[in-house]
Design brief:
Blueprint (H helix, E strand, L loop, with lengths): L7 H11 L28 E3 L24 H4 L4 E4 L26 H9 L4 E7 L10 E2 L5 E15 L5 E7 L2 E5 L5 E5 L5 E7 L10 E2 L8 H10 L55 E8 L13 E7 L1 H5 L4 E5 L7 E8 L8 E2 L2 E3 L1
Antiparallel strand pairs: 1-6, 2-7, 3-9, 4-10, 5-6, 5-7, 5-8, 5-9, 11-14, 12-13, 12-15, 12-16
Amino acid sequence: MDRRRFSSAAVASLFLSTGWLLPVSVAGECTKGIDIPTVDDYSDWPDLFRLTDPYPTDPTASNRDEDAGPVDPSVLLSAGVVYKHFDPAGFDYPNRTKQIPWSPPVNGTNDEDLQVFREEHDYQYADIVVVSGYAEKFYIEHLHAAGDEVRYVIDGTGYFDIRDVHDEWVRMHARAGDFVEFPSGIEHRFAVDDKLYIQAMRLYPGDGEPDWSSVSRSEVHGNNTSRNEYVDKYLCGVDPDLEDHHDDPDDHHDDPDDHHDDPDDHHDDPDDHSDPDDTTSPTSAPAASVSLKTKKIKTKKNNKKSKSKKSSLNEYETPDMKAAGGAVEWAYDDEHVGMRLKFSLCPDPGDGDKVQRTAASFE
């Protein structure tokens, strides 16, 4: 396969246009990402951009960082993402409904190019799922250990957020015709956009049962084989989840999206967008007044503080929530007490002095 060779002028141009350096050869040093196949035309690619906030309050909104400018597709290519474009128009697919599993209808109008691609890559299994509203569990940052994630958007639109090799989010605004493959071990998440509807095909290789299982980022801890293989191949063997700066409880890379109420909930696939036995719909939009976050506090090296120190749990409520009979909790530690998962429901900062504290404390 032809590989792109970068001159210093080309690298400078890419840096100025994207804000990110792509993989280049530097004697004696490892550079993140892989060599990028020669592509002259990226016009089929969907819109790619940076986020104004890595953990947006409303993931269905664009949250586009206009100052950062568009992201060049080569940024995702270097992280192992594969993209193709197929035009679903004129072919027979279920009309805004799911079908699990799905096969091209006999005597139907079917996409021969897609079928050839499936045969070449042994994608024997396919189904079609529909997401008709924002579902918070899909927006938990996660990876797939059982294989690559393969999605083909047939109708509607939505957002895939994908970590690049610098551990920063790239948002892909996917629309009908976008066919994407995310390599096993890459961290990502999904949300519908403000139209609250997307229909997509999921594909899985081989003749066995598809494995849609996923693992949330907060539960990897450096001991997931697929993640380690991805880190070795794309990130020079350095997993940002394990770097020292993650000991800082205020670091934005501490995962605020790990908001499982059930410790076993990570086995439910955030990309399993349509349970064939579930006729309920996700919520229509995320609540703008409450931000759900989890913080990880790791013991710093040589930390000799006693685990018996008192910590605090503060409970807050807003007038609206009080009227509804609910309260918002915000838990935090005054001292570092080893590894502790902390579940926080934080009042909207815009509530200001309307937030009232009804406090308690615990040892």
